[in-house]
Amino acid sequence: MLDRRIFLGLLAGLPSLAAQVQAARAQAAQASESSDADAALAVVRALQDSQVEVLSHATKMSLQQRFDALRPALGAAFDLDGMAKLAYGPGFDALPEREAWTQSFGDYVAATYAQRLEFVESKGFERDAKVEPRDGALVVGTRMIPLKGEPMPIDYVVKSTPHGWRIADILANGSISELTQWRRALKGLALKDLRQRVASLLGR
């Protein structure tokens, strides 16, 4: 039989034990949030570093060369599967050429950026040290620093995916969704027509 004094001592220690468990859980949650934030920042940093590399040589690179330089980094940083599904809209899951459409969507995004960077004169990017939780995602605030004029806010919506943390949308000036613009342009578009859009962007 358990000694009464030992039993009472155990009861007295329960609040302290509960507090320790709660504190440990809070520390674990904080560590997890910090790790997620670091991962989200790393994805955005890698993407912007690739863009800075292209920006530094933009005037000496052809449109195709800029596309070739940007496409791998975009593929690694973006949640192309999720973004392509939203851009296409209803019926995407039943699309026979779903994988090819997703690949061409990635090409479309890269071609769009390859065009834009031809006319951008920038020193690079600044990133906020902290990220903002928003609707189940993390928003990384950044600014493009032009050679002239005011910094341009560019926020990245980063989500956890089966492939790790990936960019799910870009918000120009903090609110203008790139994905929404792409959906308006590409919703329900046949694969051959999407490929023609890519070719047209690249001047083929």
Describe what this molecule looks like in 3D.
This protein has 204 residues and is of the alpha+beta class. It has one domain: Tgt2/MlaC (Nuclear Transport Factor 2, Chain: A, Roll). The chain is 57% helix and 22% strand. The protein contains six helices and five strands; from the N terminus they run H-H-H-H-E-E-E-E-E-H-H. The chain has helices at residues 4-57, 63-77, 80-88, 98-116, 178-186, 191-201; strands at 122-134, 137-146, 152-161, 164-172, 176-177. It has a five-stranded antiparallel beta sheet. Strand 3 and strand 4 form a beta hairpin. Helix 4 runs parallel beside helix 6 (191-201). It is globular, with a radius of gyration of 23 Å. The protein starts with a helix and ends with a helix.
The overall pLDDT, averaged over residues, is: 85
Query: Helix fraction?
Result: 55-70%
Helices and strands, in order, run as HHHHEEEEEHH
Q: Overall 3D geometry?
A: globular
Low-confidence stretches: 17-32
Structural class label: alpha+beta
What is the strand content? Answer: 15-25%
Distance between the termini: 87 Å
CATH C-level label: Alpha Beta
Looking across the biggest beta sheet, what order are the strands in?
1-2-3-4-5
- The appropriate CATH architecture is Roll
CATH homologous superfamily placement: Tgt2/MlaC
Number of helices: 6
Write down the CATH topology. Nuclear Transport Factor 2, Chain: A
Number of strands: 5
**Tally of individual domains:** 1
Alpha-carbon Rg, integer: 23 Å
